[in-house]
Amino acid sequence: MRSLVLLVVALAIAGCGKESTAPGGSLVFAEVSAGDYHTCAVTTGGAAYCWGHNDVGQLGIGTFDSLPHPVPEPVAGGRRFVSITTGRGHSCGLTTSGGTYCWGLNDFGELGTTAATESCTGPLPCIPVPALVSGGLRFVAVSAGATFTCAATAAGVAYCWGLDDEGELGNGTISVTGQFSPVAVAGAWTLAAIGSGDSHACAVTAAGAAVCWGANERGQLGTGNLVSETVPTPVTGGLTFATVSGGTYHSCGVTPAGAAWCWGHNHYGRLGDGSYVNQDQTSPQAVVGGLTFAAVSTGGTHTCGVTTGAAAYCWGADRYGQLGDGVADTLVHPAPEAVLGGLALTSVSAGVVHSCGLTAAGVAYCWGDNTYGALGDSTTLGRVAPVRVARQP
């Protein structure tokens, strides 16, 4: 859900301004991100689309309501994006011009701006269109957490903004009022990957070491204890990682060799270590199955990954069909299970109760809870196997 490799992004995209379509007329996506009850994606032409829940303007379409939005709708403003990320009630993206924009709920500053807001639901302030993150910083990666956001510059310097009541901004302080503009993450770290979770964040340094900060009541920082940290703290075990991803109460990473490791709360078997131990694992646990992963994505109570052979697997809770294995049940799924359909997916994103993936041809598929249309298939029917995202009407 909230994991991005830090890459220097080219600011010009081939074909920008002209949308291509896949067979059947679907939009051709370059990236898809599953949030709590909404999903956003960027096309190969740089256009941003979102669908699902929009009660606080998290779709960025200029309005807010409690109705389902079951098909992709264009994000307002006509800007061209190179990447996009979804959190609990907000979304953010990086544009081709180097700007960082966020939209949706802004009660704790998770949009990174003090720009004028509209009241979305009661007293909650929101901005239902993309708003420029303040400070004038140029980021090459951005990752939205539940109520905060983190980003990194081309030099590998990390900044965060939003709620900081558990140290999730990583600047050495605690604040219950929120931070409405980017603040530098403490320490002389040069980061090569960053992933925001519910109330914590993790990153990979240029040397491949994993560091985490924020809430740690379930061991999601992987530091060998249950002590929360307000600054980046090394994950135990001495492993070398290429990517990391932060979920609700757990985190996962993939080594350069493709081995997946997870740590934190193992309820429902979300760590994928083959056991159902409803306890906190404060150090990395190897994901079983002998699979070679390209990346993993941590959701609410489940995790998904895609192998180097473009096969998708998920594990953990499956009450809403978010594992995509053909069932929806309350059983424990503590080991990777193949996502049905035999789709060759190049990326996968785990939300809170749904998941999405993308093929090499740019076709998006989603599965799991669909109460608010987060699967984008033009219905509100939950799906236990991947369903193709509908074309833009």
Explain what the structure shows.
By secondary structure, the protein is mainly β. The chain has a single domain (3-388), classed as Methylamine Dehydrogenase, Chain H, CATH 2.130.10. Helices cover 0% and strands 44% of the residues. The protein has strands at residues 3-5, 29-34, 38-43, 48-54, 65-74, 81-86, 90-95, 100-105, 118-119, 125-132, 141-144, 148-152, 158-164, 175-184, 191-196, 200-205, 210-214, 229-234, 243-246, 250-254, 260-265, 280-286, 293-298, 302-307, 312-316, 337-338, 345-350, 354-359, 364-368, 383-388. A 5-stranded antiparallel β-sheet has the order 1-15-16-17-18, with no helix packed on it. A 5-stranded antiparallel β-sheet has the order 6-7-8-10-9, with no helix packed on it. Strand 7 (90-95) and strand 8 form a beta hairpin. Residues 4-19 have low confidence and may be disordered.
Jot down its keywords.
5-stranded antiparallel β-sheet, globular, 44% strand, 393 residues, Methylamine Dehydrogenase, Chain H, single chain, mainly beta
- Going by CATH, the homologous superfamily would be Regulator of chromosome condensation 1/beta-lactamase-inhibitor protein II
Helix content: under 10%
For the record, the count of structural domains works out to 1
Could you give the count of β-strands?
Answer: 30
Rg over CA atoms, rounded to whole Å, is 19 Å
> Strands across the major sheet, in which order?
1-15-16-17-18
Taken as a percent bin, the fraction of beta residues is 35-45%
Highest CATH level, the class:
Mainly Beta
Largest sheet: 5 strands, antiparallel
